[in-house]
Write a structure and sequence with these properties.
The protein is an alpha/beta fold. A 5-stranded mixed beta sheet has the order 2-1-3-10-4, sandwiched between helices. A 5-stranded mixed beta sheet has the order 7-6-8-5-9, sandwiched between helices. It has 2 domains: about 180 residues, Periplasmic binding protein-like II (D-Maltodextrin-Binding Protein, domain 2); about 100 residues, 3-Layer(aba) Sandwich (D-Maltodextrin-Binding Protein, domain 2), CATH 3.40.190.10. It has 15 helices and 10 strands.
């Protein structure tokens, strides 16, 4: 009797260990799932149609959102300003647009969180375009002209102001005229002669050239605007705090989409062609922006805030917040988390 117990005890012990390990693994898997499952799987992302959205398009098209347990609806908008009010009302979960509008709203008392970066300037990705028969042939000739933009007090007006200043032209000498229909309609609108030039983003710079023969007057990726941060993925602070696992799942999918966008131009061209309904002869020619990955770069976003203050897109009463970096800091780190270093 005692001999049987001595012989079988190691075997029984081993079986107990295996069963315990299996239970622990199952429990660990369930715990991991519970910690990462989005609180709100159905989300809406409002975005301005442009090549800057390639990371978003690829995350959608390649099932990266689905892998994170998300069902994403992409809503196209004309400008960031056009959606901020709806976002503050909770009608939009996340937006992808210019930092300019969100920094201005944050300074005025709204509370937003930049979840991830979307794009930075590269040659040919933002430009001033004129018609083929325009008398305006140089940047200097823009003095006194009307310039069509997709929104006032936007990334367009900021970039143009910075480039004009570097060419010795006061931005006050041009008249910015917003087009309520946004980039897709602007190449056609330019032909009507209401503007001397238009601010366009890719792929619509290429559309203007292919459809109308419109030349590029000035590439806005130059001098102080080189590699300038353009767009980010932004949520209200209230939304980000209410749905932290949803926000984290979105960021993980976007990071994968951004990495894909950086890997091969043809992948981006195909995605832009599909989502913006453009033919291959256009998408094959488009210039691509940078697609940042990793944590939001505070120093990059700070460039935008400083330029906004310099060119009057932020009131001088926000000078201290901008100079000390607290305005940008409030959009990147949770309250109470200090700067690294």
């Amino acid at each position: 009797m005692h001999t049987w117990i001595r012989l079988k005890t190691p075997l029984i012990a081993a079986m107990i260990m295996v069963l315990a390990a299996g239970c622990a693994t199952a429990h660990s898997g369930a715990l991991t799932s519970a910690l990462t499952t989005p609180e709100e799987p159905d989300i809406t992302v409002a975005a301005i149609p442009a090549t800057d959205l390639a990371g978003l398009y690829l995350a959608q098209d390649d099932g990266l959102f689905a892998q994170q347990g998300l069902h994403v609806t992409i809503e196209k908008i004309t400008s960031s300003q056009a959606i901020i009010a709806d976002q503050l009302k909770g009608q939009v979960d996340i937006s992808s647009g210019s930092y300019v509008a969100y920094l201005a709203a944050q300074a005025a008392g709204a509370r937003f969180r930049i979840l991830a970066e979307a794009s930075t300037l590269r040659p040919g990705t933002r430009a001033l375009v004129t018609t083929a028969d325009s008398p305006i042939k140089t940047t200097a000739a823009l003095a006194g002209a009307k310039i069509g933009v997709n929104g006032t007090n936007s990334i367009g007006t900021l970039l143009i102001s910075m480039v004009l200043q570097e060419h010795g032209i006061s931005p006050k000498r041009v008249d910015f005229v917003p087009d309520q229909k946004g980039f897709p309609a602007m190449p056609g609108q330019l032909q009507d002669g209401a503007w001397g030039a238009a601010f366009l983003a890719e792929p619509y710079i290429t559309v203007a050239g292919e459809d109308y023969g419109d030349p590029e007057l000035a590439d806005l990726d130059q001098g102080g605007t080189l590699n300038f941060p353009v767009d980010g993925y932004v949520a209200t602070l209230a939304w980000a705090e209410k749905y932290p696992k949803t926000a984290a799942a979105f960021v993980r999918a976007i990071e994968e989409g951004q990495a894909l966008a950086n890997s091969e131009a043809a992948v981006v061209q195909a995605a832009v062609g599909k989502f913006d309904q453009l033919p291959p002869e256009v998408t094959a020619l488009i210039a691509l922006p940078g697609f940042p990955t990793g944590p939001v770069a505070e120093t990059q976003i700070q460039r935008v805030a400083v330029a906004m203050l310099q060119f009057g897109l932020l009131s001088t009463r926000y000078t201290t917040e901008v100079q000390q970096g607290t305005l940008v800091e409030s959009m990147i780190r949770p309250p109470g988390v200090s700067r690294p270093g």
